[in-house]
Specification:
two-stranded antiparallel ribbon
Length: about 180
């Protein structure tokens, strides 16, 4: 998916471009089932305005390509952004994953099938350290309880973890484990 913005260019600079090439691949349901599909994969974010020459040229290239199969235009007054979605994450994790774990236990399902939950939690620990997938510092989204989990992960020493294996490590690790399922 390619995101193009023609009005609020700050959204491209602050919300989408820092997360280019990020994939969302797994839906864990509270009944214990797992749905695997690409929900969104923003590969590129561009400003849809001729004053931004390189972005505008790239958009023209995309729209003129014979291989283009689909275009979707969304016009909203409140665009969604990864930062808004990540707001209050500390409060969302127990609901999202705690209920799934409880459902597995109640139904006597194999807990080993929940292998992706530890991956999500490891990814969240990296997020709490404020390091993006390119190894650059960033400020986590607002969360009134942010200090508590950050204090917990601050003490963790990262040695040879896949999620810290250099630029692109998070993306590679997600693709590795989700594709294997």
């Amino acid at each position: 998916m390619i995101v193009a913005e023609g009005f609020d260019y700050e959204i491209i600079d602050k919300a989408y471009r820092p997360f280019d090439n990020m994939s969302l691949l797994v839906l864990l349901k509270s009944d214990g089932s797992i749905e695997k599909k690409v929900v969104a994969s923003v590969t590129e974010s561009l400003k849809a305005d001729p004053q931004f020459g390189d972005d505008w040229s790239r958009l023209r290239e995309i729209f003129c390509a014979p291989s283009l199969q689909m275009v979707s235009f969304t016009i909203t007054f409140m665009p969604d952004a990864p930062q808004r979605i990540a707001t209050d994450t500390s409060q969302k994790l127990s609901i999202r994953f705690g209920e799934t774990i409880k459902a597995y236990q109640a139904k006597g399902l194999n807990m080993d099938d929940l292998a992706l939950i530890p991956l999500v939690l490891a990814g969240y620990a990296r997020y709490l350290k404020g390091v993006n997938d390119e190894g650059e510092a960033f400020t986590p989204s607002p969360d009134p309880l942010l200090a508590e989990p950050q204090e917990i992960v601050a003490a963790l020493e990262v040695k040879e973890a896949e999620l810290y294996a250099g630029p692109g490590a998070v993306r590679k690790t997600l693709h590795k484990y989700v594709s294997a399922r």
